[in-house]
Write a structure and sequence with these properties.
The protein is of the alpha+beta class and 283 residues long. It is built from nine helices and 20 strands. The strands form six sheets. Strands 9-11-10-13-8-12 form a six-stranded antiparallel β-sheet. Helix 1 packs across helix 2.
């Protein structure tokens, strides 16, 4: 038993419906594609333990069972003794699901950051302003006031992001602050004199391949934008600790049918910023 939501994509000439399936997934069946940040996990675990509910479902590719959004929620529920998790099942390769990557902004002594980068194999390059907005596929580029430096490595996307993680960790140990931004914020950051790391673009196949191999990208590698996202389902943990999926789905269906929901046009800020075109908020 499951609940199906659908929405027509705005701007789609063929007006194709976009379907999502809300159901329960076994945590042991899922694959994560990004590393856990322990400090974030601890805070989230405190909140979920206190509230006794999982507020927002995770988003999972129904074909591969790779978790696209909700890595920390999966690990948190696992540590809290849950066997199941509320999941929005999607077709990851639907073109209406957009995959983006996070850029980095460096605050601190840029000369130190450049020196460390060269220790990690970055070399000087001729800077083309188009790079900041168009991005790159096979390298990491650090743009600073004096120009830009580049790391190419083997060109393998997992190796590139692993190198980036090691570089970031070294920067933090040296007291340099790193923030994460969207690609459309790069121009403003550069205009403010900030140094920006342009990270390599990924494909959806990259995400699936790495996750299914048992490896994980560093935190803040992928940024997924879905046409629609349900929020605040507030599934009780006591149900997610059970193991009879059919009976539990029936109980959750009854819970949801007893509540109202509203559609919220995005992008918007609710509990955080959402890029989505449409949010379904349960109340």
């Amino acid at each position: 038993m499951k609940i199906i939501f659908f929405v027509h994509s705005s701007g789609d000439m063929e007006n194709k419906p976009y379907y999502i399936e809300l159901r329960l997934a076994r945590i042991s069946d899922l694959y994560l594609h990004e590393e856990i940040v322990e400090s974030h996990l601890r805070k989230l675990k405190e909140i979920i333990s206190r509230d006794g509910v999982l507020s927002n479902p995770v988003v999972v590719d129904r074909g591969s069972l790779v978790v696209l959004d909700g890595t920390h929620r999966v690990r948190c529920l696992e540590e809290l003794g849950c066997r199941l998790i509320t999941a929005v099942m999607v077709d990851y390769f639907d073109p209406m699901i957009r995959l983006r990557n996070w850029y980095r902004v460096i605050s601190g002594d840029i000369n130190v950051a450049i020196g460390i980068a060269k220790m990690f194999g970055f070399v000087d390059m001729e800077y083309d302003p188009k790079i900041a907005e168009e991005g790159v596929y096979d390298s990491i580029i650090l743009i600073h006031r004096g120009g830009a430096i580049i790391y190419r490595g083997s060109g393998d996307i997992f190796d590139l992001y692993s190198r980036l993680r090691d570089y970031e960790e070294y920067l933090r140990r040296m007291g340099i602050k790193i923030e994460y931004i969207h690609e459309n914020q790069v121009r403003d950051m550069l205009g403010m004199g900030k140094a920006v790391i342009v990270t390599p673009k990924l494909s959806k196949s990259d995400v699936i391949r790495v996750a299914k191999s048992g490896r994980v990208f560093p935190p803040k590698t992928t940024r997924h934008i879905f046409p629609i996202r349900p929020l605040f389902l507030d599934t009780p943990l006591e149900l997610l600790r059970m193991d009879e999926v059919r009976d539990i789905e029936s109980l959750i269906n009854r819970l949801l049918l007893s509540r109202t929901y509203v559609k919220v046009k995005g992008p918007t800020i609710i509990d955080r910023f959402y890029d989505e075109d449409l949010l379904i908020v349960f109340m």
